[in-house]
Amino acid sequence: MKITKKRLVLVILFICPLLFFLILSMGVVNWTKLPVLTERVLDIQQLDSTKQISFKGNISILCFVGNDIEMAKGGVFNVNQKIYKDFYGYQAFQAVAIYPISRQSQITELQKKLGQFTDMTKWKFVGLSNKQITTLFKSLNTNKTLTDGYSNLIFIIDKDLKLRGRKNDSDKSTDLLYGYNMNSVGELGDKMEDDVKVLLYEYRAAFKNKKKADRKKIEL
User: Fold this and answer.
1) For 99, how many CA atoms within 13 A lie in the half-sphere containing its CB?
2) Domains of the chain, residue spans
3) How far is CA 192 from each of CA 82, 154, 161, rounded to the nearest angstrom?
4) SS3 for 170?
5) CA-based nearest residue to 195, from 63, 77, 31
6) Domain 36-211 homologous superfamily, CATH
């Protein structure tokens, strides 16, 4: 069969997109599981039972803003723009900022500034004692430390209180990416945004598989 210019155009328009979709679908299988780096992170309610906020049952991004709220503000605004605004519409998503309870007035001011251009529904600011903050951070079981209650990293906690991240990150000397640099718009956009999408896809796929399994049980 002679390949005319018209047939070649048809192949490009219809066959190539199909092949691209199949390749993309095969690739999704390989990245639908975001690695677990710590099996059990302490829940906020384990530290203070009076708190209404919990990691359990939520996909949480967690940061520690420390005593110098002004220093941490830039990172929080980066997270708000690059991560929070993309995902706050998901029902189980929340952003949790941990701060020393003594900094309540500064946090209130920070919330007001964020609220000027952000729906604050899924932002959760939690005041804890210095000891509680240290205990929570240590439960992440990373190779990082806090400085005056602050970390420049933001972490992903899944619905089962597991710390998620990357086990093969070429930019890190240990290949383990426990958290994402809040002060780097590039890292938030290039890595964290992708990883939150992966985790959401993982839960969505699990939900669909459960629905299919339940449907088969009913048919039987």
Assistant:
1) 24
2) 36-211
3) 9, 9, 18
4) coil
5) 31
6) Glutaredoxin (3.40.30.10)
Contact 69, 118 (CB under 8 A): no
How do residues 13-60 score in pLDDT, each as one tens digit? Answer: 556 555 544 444 444 434 468 999 999 999 999 999 999 999 999 999
CA atoms of 95 and 63, how far apart (whole Å)? 8
pLDDT digits 0-9 by tens, 141-177 = 999 999 999 999 999 999 999 999 999 887 665 689 9
Tokens 């929070």: give the residue: 84
Q: How many residues does the chain have?
A: 220
Pairing of strands 150-157, 163-164: antiparallel
CB environment 6-22: b (16+ within 10 A), e (fewer):
eeeeeeeeeeeeeeeee
